Amino acid sequence: MKNPDLATAFHALHRGPELLLLANAWDGGSARLIESLGARAIATTSAGVAWAHGYPDGDALPVPLVLATAHAIARVIRVPLTMDIEAGYSDDPEAVGRLAGQLIEAGAVGINLEDGSKPPDLLCAKIARIRRVATELGVDLFINARIDVYLRGLVAEPDRLAEARGRAARYSGAGASGIFVPGLVEPSAIAAIAGAIDRPLNVLAWPGLPPAAELARLGVRRLSAGSAIAQGALTRVRALATAFLRDGQREAADGAITHRDMNALLTDR
Fold it and tell me: 4-238 in CATH: which number?
């Protein structure tokens, strides 16, 4: 169910005194567990959600499963939910707008939407359409526009800063609430982009990225784990399953969450 108050709260988290840390979840159970650890909001990882449903990351996940994930997470958490919807699973701005409306009705108050290797004009059109849909529904949806210039190396390295700043300005003008630049790690470039935009800057936890405290000083407002936690969980699954398939032994992990603990987290939500 749509919740304008949670949308307002989510926007406020980007203006608070502390960096917003998002430990990305991939299903209802992981989202509820992360919330119980003190997370102020829940974001999804598109990769983790796709893998959980048996699909590769990269706009391959069927939209009904995206919506099912949003419903499942919104049902068990009380903090704001933002959904990573990749490029919107369509090049048609109308279709992406419909998906955004369905996610709002499911309980999401934010989305990530990426440009990838497609023309910036296309993302601008998608953002504008989503903004109109959200306004019609009476929810100030937080649209986090992801710029893939650094992550995908879309232009030559000397040109990336200028390209990212130009795209940030265009996406902000189209109606984006925030700007996400994964793969950005160099402190002077982070500060330059943060200082050039009038929207909260989001970066991705990445090798070489400065510590969280320094990121805040550089002007970053939001730090995302991305797929790292889902990858860590699957790495542990691989190790445990390998051991079990080798000799049938159940390995007790130190500090393992219990059956009772997880049931308690998910009861009466």
Answer: 3.20.20.60
Instruction: Give the pLDDT score at 255.
Output: 77
Reading the block at residue 110, the tokens are 């934010």
What's the pLDDT score for residue 252?
Answer: 67
Does the global pTM surpass 0.70?
yes
CA–CA dist 82, 238 (Å, integer): 28
Angle formed by the axes of helices 160-174 and 120-137, to 10°?
A: 30
Cα 216 to Cα 222: distance, rounded to the nearest angstrom: 9
Pairing of strands 81-84, 201-204: unpaired
DSSP per-residue string spanning the chain? ---HHHHHHHHHHTTSSSPEEE--B-SHHHHHHHHHTT-SSEEB-HHHHHHHTT--TTT-S-HHHHHHHHHHHHHH--S-EEEE-TT-S-S-HHHHHHHHHHHHHHT--EEEEE-TTS-HHHHHHHHHHHHHHHHHHT---EEEEE--TTTTT-S-GGGHHHHHHHHHHHHHHHT-SEEE-TT---HHHHHHHHHH-SS-EEEE--TTPPPHHHHHHHTEEEEE-TTHHHHHHHHHHHHHHHHHHHH-PPP--TTPPPHHHHHHHTTT-
The pLDDT of residue 253 is above 70:
no
For 68-78, the pLDDT digits (tens) are 999 999 999 99
Average pLDDT score over residue span 214-222: 98
Task: Please state, in angstroms and rounded to a whole number, the distance separating the CA atoms of residues 177 and 195.
Answer: 16
* pLDDT above 90 (res 129): yes
CA distance 130 to 41: 21
